[in-house]
Specification:
By secondary structure, the protein is α/β, with parallel strands linked by helices. 40% of the residues lie in helices and 20% in strands. The chain contains 15 helices and 21 strands. A seven-stranded mixed β-sheet has the order 15-16-17-14-13-18-19, sandwiched between helices. A six-stranded mixed β-sheet has the order 10-9-8-11-12-20, sandwiched between helices. Strands 1-5-4 form a three-stranded mixed β-sheet, covered by helices on one side. α8 links the parallel β11 and β12. α3 crosses α4 and α9 crosses α10. The longest helix is centred in the first third of the chain and has 24 residues. It is globular and about 65 Å long. Bound molecules: nicotinamide-adenine-dinucleotide. Nicotinamide-adenine-dinucleotide (NAD) binds next to α7 and α8.
């Protein structure tokens, strides 16, 4: 049993005065594996004050020193990488291999790309604009609010660039998966991140998230989560005119053009959705297939989906873990049932508890077909291992369907002609598009059009979010 009755404030684990606690449940066993004390309103003020005090020295620390500390942090994460993966496997349910390679591995890569950006950024450099020198300076104290699905990665995409830019951070991880954040706090202390530069408060959105967003001494909010909560953060931040970075939901389309290699495109599409049991904002949950090839696509998708092995996330043979919680399992099942009521059909999977995993919040890898643009599953984020096959009649039709959404985070185009695929990608109203299953690039900007968010994370663009601009005239 993991047990914490502390918050991480000013470089130390400090006992919290409140009585409230959060239970952490292992979604594969349905057993409580941790008890974590919630922060109090006083803890919020103490943490923000610590971050504010630390900012003065951290912001002006020579770049070489900041780099040394971040490189030390990367080394300490590598040393504790298996522990982080084990905790994420336990509290999120990600299969252990995927937890090490993606949940922790991508967080490490994100920190490394930020270190490279900082090595390339001279904080004293300026751009001469006529009689002005234009400088970039750290924005101040950042509230980082992160979700449960990729808890370490989506914390790192805020913490690393904020620290690199010279900002200090008060982090509120998801109350559903707080254990990895508390372990990360230990790691920052062991790596010599100075007291107050990074602080962690445990709590839910209304009790801890909202007061942090409203706090006068917070200069910027970097948030990843649902569009519903992001909208609330946006409203609250307006009161003190804070800078915000919002990474929100998605309903991304994978357009498979008639000249694509259908087997490769459908197989890659299903695999992309099944990462983290479909609990990914970037999931290509709508797969757009030429109508005359729908039956063929169904067969390919079925083969890929049925090749996944459900089971305990600690078993290295498991390739599909549970979803994070009972409410999440019920939500995903509800979406599958609604799709059937609205006229889609199940190719494989479905809403029932999978026979091979009678315990745990599992959802079978599910392929829905004949999904039409008006159906609920084509419009709302499912956040589970569910792929919607949608037929289209022409390329124009496919582009129209892809853009017929409130979201605009990610997408894919598969085609035998890369230039043609690029022309289609340019017409998609979305922040990222992968051509023919291209590898992920953590140096490139990541973020959404429309209700998928405001601003960008990753690489240089993600780093720049944490800088203010100052012009000095001569
Ligand atoms: P969520 O919105 O419920 O919670 C996210 C975080 O915000 C948590 O720490 C939560 O405690 C906090 N929060 C909730 N309400 C708040 C409020 N009113 N004020 C301040 N903080 C608040 O989301 P979740 O269920 O943890 O994560 C799933 C969602 O996150 C999905 O919609 C998914 O698409 C989105 N997501 C987006 C990205 C991206 O990069 N665009 C990445 C991953 C997940």
């Amino acid at each position: 049993m993991h047990s914490y009755d502390t918050q991480f404030i000013d470089g130390q684990f400090i006992a919290t005065g409140g009585q409230a606690t959060f239970e952490v449940t292992n979604p594969a066993t349905e057993r409580v594996i941790g008890r974590v004390a919630a922060a109090t309103p006083e803890d919020i003020d103490t943490a923000v004050a610590a971050a504010r005090r630390a900012f003065d020295a951290w912001a002006v620390l020579p770049r070489a020193h900041r780099l040394d500390i971040l490189i030390g942090l990367a080394a300490e994460i590598e040393r504790r990488g298996d522990d982080l993966a084990a905790v994420i496997c336990e509290e999120v349910g990600t299969p252990i291999g995927e937890a090490r390679a993606l949940q922790v591995g991508l967080a490490q890569l994100s920190l490394q790309t930020t270190i490279d950006v900082l090595a390339d950024h001279d904080p004293d450099a300026y751009t001469q604009v006529a009689n002005s020198r234009v400088y970039r300076e750290p924005i101040g104290v950042v509230a980082a609010i992160s979700p449960w699905n990729y808890p370490l990665l989506l914390s790192m995409t805020k913490i690393a660039p904020a620290l690199a830019a010279g900002c200090t951070v008060v982090h509120k991880p998801s109350e559903v998966t707080p254990l990895n954040a508390l372990l990360f706090a230990e790691i920052t202390a062991a790596a010599g991140v100075p007291a107050g530069v990074y602080n962690v408060l445990i709590g839910d959105g209304p009790t801890i998230g909202e007061p942090l967003v409203r706090h006068r001494d917070i200069d910027m909010v970097a948030f990843t989560g649902s569009t519903r909560a992001g909208r609330r953060v946006y409203e609250l931040a307006a009161n003190t005119v804070k800078k915000i970075n919002l990474e929100l939901g998605g309903k991304s389309a994978n357009i498979i053009l008639p000249d694509a290699d259908l087997t490769q495109a459908v197989d890659a599409g299903v695999r992309q959705v099944f990462f983290a049991s479909g609990q990914a904002c970037f999931a290509w949950s709508r797969v757009l297939v030429p109508r005359e090839r729908l039956a063929e696509a169904e067969k390919i998708a079925r083969r890929t989906a049925e090749s996944y092995i459900l089971g305990s996330p600690t078993d290295p043979a498991t390739t599909l873990g549970p979803v994070v919680s009972k409410p999440q399992q019920q939500r995903v099942r509800h979406y599958i049932r609604t799709a059937l009521d609205e006229g889609a059909h199940v190719v494989t999977g479905g809403a029932d508890q999978p026979a091979e995993t009678p315990t745990g919040y599992f959802v079978a890898g599910t392929i829905l077909s004949n999904v039409t643009p008006d159906m609920t599953v084509a419009r709302e984020e499912i956040f589970g291992p569910v792929v919607c096959l949608m037929p289209y009649d022409s390329e124009e039709d496919a582009i129209r369907i892809a853009n017929d959404t409130d979201y605009g985070l990610h997408g894919a185009v598969f085609s035998g002609d890369v230039e043609h695929a690029t022309a289609v990608a340019r017409r998609l109203r979305t922040g990222r598009v992968d051509i023919n299953g291209a590898p992920n690039n953590l140096d490139a900007p990541f973020g959404g059009y429309r209700q998928s968010g405001v601003g960008r994370e990753f690489g240089r663009a993600g780093f720049d979010e944490f800088l203010e601009t100052k012009a000095i005239q001569y």
